[in-house]
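Quick one - first record:
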Amino acid sequence: MILYIAEKPSLARAIAAALPSPQKKEDGCIWLPNGDCISWCIGHLLEQAEPHQYDPIFKSWSLDHLPIIPTDWQWQEKANTKKQLGVLKKLIKKATHLVHAGDPDREGQLLVDEVIYFTKVPKLKLQNTQRLLINDLTPSAVKKALNNLRPNSEFAALSRSALARARADWLFGLNLTRAYTIRGRQAGYQGVLSIGRVQTPVLGLVAARDKEREHFIPKDYFQVWAQVETNLKARFQAKWLPSEACKPHMDEENRVLNRALAVNVASRITNQPANVIEASYKQKKQAPPLPYNLSSLQIDAAKIFSLSAQQVLDTCQTLYERHQIITYPRSDCRYLPSLQHKDAKGILNALSKATAELAQGAENANPAIRSKAWNDKQVTAHHAIIPTSQAHKAGSLGKVESQVFGLIARQYLMQFYPDYDFLASYIKLDIAGGQFEAKGNTPISFGWRALLPQKTKSNSKREQNDEEQNELPKLQKGDSLWCHEGIIHDKVTTPPAAFTDATLLSAMTGISRFVTNKDIKAILKDTDGLGTDATRASIIELLFKRGFLIRQGKQIHASETGRAFVDCLPSQLVTPDMTAQWESTLNTISLGETSYQSFMSHLEGNLVELLDASKSLSSASLKHLPAPAKKAFSKRSTGKRKSASKPSNSTSKTRTRRSTAKR
């Protein structure tokens, strides 16, 4: 008997729909006519054991107990899903062959693996376990996946990476949350001071931005623009490029701070000849943007529709599970497998029967075009989020569903349009001994950009960059022109913008911009970030629930409590350096390039140092923390109210030692 173990009931139903009938549904499973069976998890059926399960003394919170580091890690059954775990235990024991059908990501791999290991599957059955990777819940796609099973052992490193992340988060969150909560209570603060290796640096980012904005001192600066005319009466603007002699009057970003200097330059170039010292016109092409992964979709949806990261994730789950209109949404990949290119005609045909806007885009798409998105080397367990062959259902979607699906579909359609073709122009002038430059981009063929909303004239004027004009006249080096007037643009520096859903997600995704340690910054890849595509939305929401972040319109700010808490913590906890390096290391574990044990050993040593810092913290620094907001407590083990009993005065030493656990 083959047992298919899906991550959730919806995935189990999708697998069943692709397999023969008649089928018999029982409590917790579906039987196939040949005697094979499909069952499922309901998310994680297991969770990390609570500290008191290692030693009852840990029910009370005491600094003397820390660090709590298990020597023999234990799982515990989740209370609300014990029944389904019981069903799986019996089926796993009965099965002769297992097929792992978790979601195609790090957590999905561990979620089913942990059940298989927990039930003590015999070695031979474990070795023969296969992996079913499903990115698209439509029957045809599931049938293809069923014909391409892979050994589950190929994904052992991915599972170890997820296990390392889970245990590291447990160690880090539980120990430091207890430490700072106890120190807070000693100072009179009655709430739980929750620490998380991702949530705390995110809070630190927002608090730092708020402070930067508050302490920002605006500066006036000045630009000089030359109004130039050619012999053929064509007019354009060129911007002054200050020389080295002007450095004393400029800031570190080469902005002129002395208005008198700007006035002098403007007057000197008025009614003066201008000579072309450089002119170049290059035809350039811009390829379409890659299809979305979850983070890039959340960022665009926040910018365009003001949707929160959690709204987008929830909507995507509905589009994937209920409507089966998009592929697996919790993806961190923006590429597609080459084999999937042959499905393009069917998907484009489905989009042609969707909404009027998508239908028009689909009709002009060319399925023969193969963009850079199709790249097998860039695809891992999952691929970019794209529409499925069920896209014709788009007309019946709700408002938010339609908005999110529209973005996904449009990004996919772009892959079947030509490149954006434009002329990049550059002109450099000498006017009265000073140098001026003009840049311009002239569209030749819009290609994929034709799918973007057309801006109105008023909008395009507002958004036009002074530095870049749409069209510049054709000139040659040595041409003589005339400068009618020098115009001064009075400018003022502005503070960095407050974080929004879009910019905070962007910061979490491209965290290397905020990393202070040069060595860590150098090793981080563009794809490394705070958290993962699948967890970033929940992390942001958690900070709101705990009262550490607040919203003001579209802006996100740290609350009074959040800011005061950040000020109490060592920089290692509130800057992204440490957790960004974690993510980088976890990625190398998933690739089999770093060992689980070396990662955990380093983390445990660092944890001891951070706990020592918490114990030496002055009570005065925590004394004036604002009271916690109501309902700002986490229900997770790092801050459970039911286990947050009064700190004990016990002097018992830690009963657990450094972990020697191996996967």
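second record:
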Amino acid sequence: MSARRQLSFDDLGTPLVDALLVVVDLETTGTDPSADAITEIGAVKVRGGEVVGEFRTFVDPRRPIPAYIASLTGITDASVAGAPTIDVVLPMFLDFVGDAALVAHNARFDISFLSAQAAQCDITWAKPPVLDTLALARTVFRRDEVRNHKLSTLAAHVGASITPDHRALSDARATVDVLHAIIERLGARGASTLEDLASAHRRATPVQLRKKHLVESVPSVPGVYQFLDAQGAVLYVGTSRNLRSRVRTYFTAAETRRKVLDMLPRAESIRVIECTTATEAAVRELRIIGAEKPPSNRHGLNPEKANWLRLGSGSDGLRAARIARSEADGSAQIGPLSSRHDVEPLRGLLTGAVLGRAASFELGSRTAASQDAGHHDRIRAAMLTDPREVLDHVAGRMRGHVEGGRYEEAEKVRQLALTFLAAGRRAARLRAIGNVPLLVAARPSTDPVVGGRGWELLAVRHGRFSGTALVNVHADPVAVARSLAATGVGEAELATPMCQGYHQEAEILLTWLEGDGVRTVLVDGEWHQPSRARFDAQHLAERFARTATIPGA
């Protein structure tokens, strides 16, 4: 799927009963993340109210622990003597966290230390979701109920099983009990997802509150939603499995995106399109964005902004192209490329592989070399069917750079080769699906519409979405497939899957067709799974990455 397409078919949030949370507490040598260091990490992993794991270790701070800190925590220089350093501990802790959200009391303190230590150790900090029980407690427990919101006060108030004692694991365990008490309180107010919890301490804006009535007309069905202005123009488009639940979040404190908050004052109504499947919704969203170009969607779809590398027919050489065209005349193209800045390097790579370094940029200028049919055919083959000549050329250049100690240059060449392979494979997939007049496929479905067990059918014509259906396991999917084959014939008139605005749609369909359990039901013409295409650049890229490695890369 194109990286440029807005992805929003989500979006009910993560139910709290399923959310994986890691409650963490740190002990440190002081309060300055840039000057002080961690001495102890304690963490408790919970899901659905149950503890599923714990983590605790001392950390050698590589500096003396101040006397007042030792007195407060009981952690002395002797306590951390022989303990692992943070560059050893932090990767272990991050592995323990995995893809969980982090929770801490006064989270700003703990997260600032963890992120600062990660930066100092040159360890990637993935910026996981963070919940602050201090901020949440201030929302849930008012001052007429508790005298302050210190962890010790809250732990006593909720009857925590552990008394905080300024030791990392004890304080993390006490924070777990406080967190569960907060969740119980907020659950009674309707907070049911991790996203609800994360935003519970914030307030919706006056505009959000004033426009909240727009949700009343939105049904709880899957499909596409469109925010419209007073004249009916489309301001913003999105998709969801439950339109009402998704749209409701736009009017809560959980919505903080500037483009949405700027759009809401102009919104006067919400139009919905009910869809049978997620794929239908994704395609409809894409087509609406392409046709309407809503100002609040991040990207519109503009045919003139595509980037291809095209080899013309006859004496025409390699050139940048905005629109993909038929290749029946012996021409070829790869892409679309992620950036126009890839065009010239790829042009140089291909011509260098066939003509040699000295003639790298001559092709395309109508020189004698560019008119050589043999050179043209070799470049066309590299683009369409067999990139091995290019890879051999790249391997030779890399060896020369590595032998000369120019590792950065070798890595640049390797990355360029992978860009070439990716562009070739992308075009090959689009070419394959675009050449099929009709394809109806099915994959297993657990959608409630079919009773939790059945088939999802998809009809594709020349790389364009033609129809979809859900079939109960006891029904005949072939009969439904034949019905789909008799509809949507007008899609054949839009058979341009390699053009900008259309290749995104084709790639949505290709992703579906490459899923697990997909079976071809009806096909008009030849169809092979893209993974079996002759230009399988993904396989070649993996092989190339194994054989052309760079020290330290």
